[in-house]
Structures are given as C-alpha cells and as structure tokens.
Design goal:
Strand content: over 45%
Distance between the termini: 40 Å
Number of strands: 11
Helix content: under 10%
Radius of gyration: 14 Å
Length: 120
Amino acid sequence: QVQLVESGGGLVQPGGSLRLSCAASGSIFSINAMAWYRQAPGKQRELVAVITSGGTTNYADSVKGRLTISMDNAKNTVYLHMNSLKPEDTAVYYCNAAVTATSRASFTSWGQGTQVTVSS
C-alpha cells in the first residue's frame, strides 16, 4: 500500500502564487515518476506536469513558464510551485505517483486532491 497526501491548496488572487506538496508513504521500494493532474468543473482530468526520478520534467503548454514541478527524492515528496496564477487554473489538483513497492509490484497511486481557486 502506498498513500499520497497532498497539501497547500487554497484561494488566491489572480497573479498570485501557491505551492502544492504531495508526500508518498508506505511500502515503497522506489518512485519512478510523480505528476500533478487537475480537473476543473465539467472538464476531464488533465496532466499538468510530470517529473521522473532522474529529474526529467514535462509540462502542459498552458502552464509552461508559470508552474514548476520539483521532487525531493529523500522525502518521497513532489511539489508544484505555481506562479502568475490565472482564473483558468482553478481546479482540483491531484498527485500521482508511479511506484515500485517493496514487493516489486509496480502500480500508480492517486492522492485525494486539493482545491485551488484563483479569484479576486
């Protein structure tokens, strides 16, 4: 079992900043990649950013230059640094991890989601 716990969401004005955190715990042998997804009301869940254990990153075009993903391998924690936020960034943000467990089984886990609201 692997658990992902997110934190850091909230209400912010347009142009503001937030930092989301997601800590993984449980029977982890290795984390291969971690990612942030988001889902706005009435829309499908979409990939925001992903980072591999080696540090390779990839971003959705809509967030390039404003959002930055980083990972602390020692803490099994991924961060999403969000700057210059726009109302269209409003969504529930979900953490995702591609994990190899101590049993050597590989699977993906999801966090419970954290709300980000950008509004004046």
